[in-house]
Fold:
Amino acid sequence: MPEYPGDDIVLLLLKNGDAGDAFELIFKKYYRLMWTKAYLGTGDPTDADDLVQSVLCSIWEKQLYYKINGNLRTYLLIAVRNQVNDYHKIKSRRLKRIEKYAETVVDESYGEEHNVISSEKFQQQLHELLREFPTQRQRAFNLVYLEHKKYHEVADNMGISVNSLKTHLKIAVKTLRNKLDLPYSE
Structure:
């Protein structure tokens, strides 16, 4: 394993304006540890990458390194833990939105008398179907229908064209309609 300078030297580099070299050292020294903590918290390698990137970007963009007085390793791991906690809060909110959407569809499609019987089964089926979607399609569906983002905003965020986004959404909605056996009017 290569020798890296101590955290105090890295922090000194950061605070003296040599952030590029300091972040390179931080990345080489701590990325794998940070990623592992994020992966253990999320269970998803892509989400773990995103969370670690988010921590490092926040430290860089908001110049949070000026606030680091103690151990850099501890600071980074706590920041990753906080990102994982936020990840789960967002995931929980998204799940609640899906459930609310499911209740709305059940109310409109089956009427009140079937709502109590069908709701749990419908929600479970909806969750299972959403999990079966490819990651990009699932993300598109969540951002547009559950987080109510605009098409161009989601397309930019995902790095795809608006037409590709529309295709993902069209396939997602068609799949849900067909597999959930919901009556709908055209």
Summary: The radius of gyration is 22 Å. The mean pLDDT is 78. Residues 72-110 form the longest helix (39 residues).
